[in-house]
Design a protein that fits this description.
Chain A is of the alpha/beta class. Chain A is built from 7 helices and 10 strands. At the A-B interface, helix 1, helix 6 and helix 7 of A face helix 1, helix 6 and helix 7 of B.
């Protein structure tokens, strides 16, 4: 990754958004707290606005009301003519685009940090558009250096030829923090605290950048999506199986460093028919299956992308 | 616990209910599977009916639509005159009471097994009414003997002078299986498999009982509720804090056996104000707090009872 050029225009207008999905509680509670008590967001060289992105979904403690807000920031949704029948989130996305954008314009916010939780055991995941986003890449590297014990993993979401559709793409620079595992609707003290600390460090980084700090070049490993595998389904579209138990500990545990997952079973999925238990009541599970019974630590993502562990040579 | 008397009337009519809470997925998917393919429920000496208890909540992937179904089986709800404005679950509870009860009558089912998941790290919890339920107590003991690696914990829910309100209380004998942690709306392969195995073993036990097997007396440890502690709240009723991170690993891990939780902090809760992070971005957390950051295993219950680890001398 190239050195972050200095001098470069300071970032002046920053926003932190929570409750983009109304049941991801770290961001919901942080946004609500900051809307009452914004002092901890203050820095000398720029202003930070807290935003509760999806108030209706938050009130209902749902991911969304009509349409996933974090899939709604495409030009098609943002620029089409409003109608009375528009889904709630389409209207809301246009409001947020007016507040934080307009997307791809000179008036857009300099930086938006979007806060998410996942039921998957993703630990601390930093989600940026691509390796070409130099500011975001340096910010991710800074977080990794500040918190080596968290093993922050970087995920680059942009696919070739695909338009961005997520909230933080309306700003000139953006990053999403994805912390898990946390059930929807549940607030975990440690994850809440970790999210709050990471936000503070992001703001500290922006302050350092604005003050003219030099950030040297570095190499970084990153993940990118290579495909999506749906669950096996019935004709009616219901689930006909689960992620295979051997694949359930999906990502590395922080204390063991970055590593590949467990050995790959022949199939990604275990259908309900495969799981027939014997009439004696004891399942015929392998050693690894039994460890799956004892290991209550990890959770399934509801939909999961296949991620490629990409050693991205980002040195200029 | 007294020996289970032999002979005693065999159990003939048994039901297994899933989806009492529509977003607790092990029971939802098991019930739906058995409604298509009931063969694995069959035993020689009795019939077992699978029931999807709350279809509307299941369809919406919500805990309930209007009112928690598992709080609706009191005589007040069941026996009052129906009106068009009745909450969905009140109507549904009356239907289930006709199907599986009537509660406290001679026509009620012999046994109902109700399947639940929790976001709390409860492992495998067996929930019965009281130590006076001899059949249920022997069933619990049998499950503990069959699966020592699961460290099945017994929870006795009945409080003095309080009427039962849960689904399995409509039958002559009842038990609930509560498996976690699992996020609502998420289906974990290992927990699904464990639930399925436990159901099979419950049915095997009933078969053994019906065949005249003798079950000797035993001693068992059990938990019972001693109180409820709400979260700190704002005037508007919103959360003003979380369960203290030191209390987050709420129950023992299966492999370490039954033990008390970690040392008790001065307060059960950590308010959002206590969690202010310093402007340097590093939180001033204790060693135990840092371990809370690294330990992503446990989850918070949304509301939690204070449980007393009760060494119940159940020997006659």
């Amino acid at each position: 990754m190239c050195s972050l050029p200095v001098p470069r225009e300071p970032l002046r207008r920053v926003a932190v958004t929570g409750g983009t999905h109304g049941n991801e509680m770290s961001g919901v509670y942080l946004a609500q707290h900051w809307l009452q008590s914004p002092a901890e967001l203050q820095r000398l060289s720029f202003s930070t606005v807290p935003v509760l992105a999806n108030p209706a979904a938050t009130a209902a403690c749902r991911r969304y009301v009509d349409h996933d807000l974090n899939r709604t920031f495409t030009s098609s949704f943002l620029n089409s003519r409003p109608t009375p029948d528009d889904p709630y989130e389409v209207t809301r996305a246009r409001e947020l685009n007016q507040l934080l954008g307009p997307k791809a314009s000179g008036r857009a916010f300099d930086f938006v940090l979007d806060l998410h939780n996942t039921t998957a055991n993703m630990g601390t995941c930093l989600i940026a558009k691509s390796s070409h986003e130099v500011f975001a890449m340096h910010l991710c590297h800074h977080l990794q250096l500040q918190y080596p014990e968290l093993s922050c993993q970087v995920f680059l979401y942009q696919r070739p030829g695909e338009e961005s559709y997520n909230l933080d793409s309306v700003a000139k620079n953006g990053l999403a923090l994805e912390l898990g595992p946390q059930p929807q609707g549940v607030l975990r003290a440690d994850i809440f605290s970790r999210m709050r600390t990471l936000v503070a460090t992001v703001l500290d980084f922006i302050e350092l950048f604005n003050q003219g700090t030099a950030f040297p070049a570095f190499e970084m490993e990153a993940y990118r999506p290579v495909g999506v595998v749906d669950f096996p389904r019935t004709d009616a579209g219901n689930l006909a199986g689960t992620v295979h138990p051997q694949l359930q500990p999906w990502t590395a545990q922080p204390e063991s460093g970055l590593e590949k997952g467990p050995c790959t079973p022949q199939s990604l999925h275990l259908t309900f028919g495969d799981q027939e238990s014997s009439s004696s009541g004891k399942t015929t599970t392998s050693g690894r299956g039994r460890r799956a019974i004892e290991d209550a630590r990890t959770v399934l993502p509801r939909d999961h992308s296949l991620c490629e562990h990409l050693r991205a040579e980002l040195r200029c």
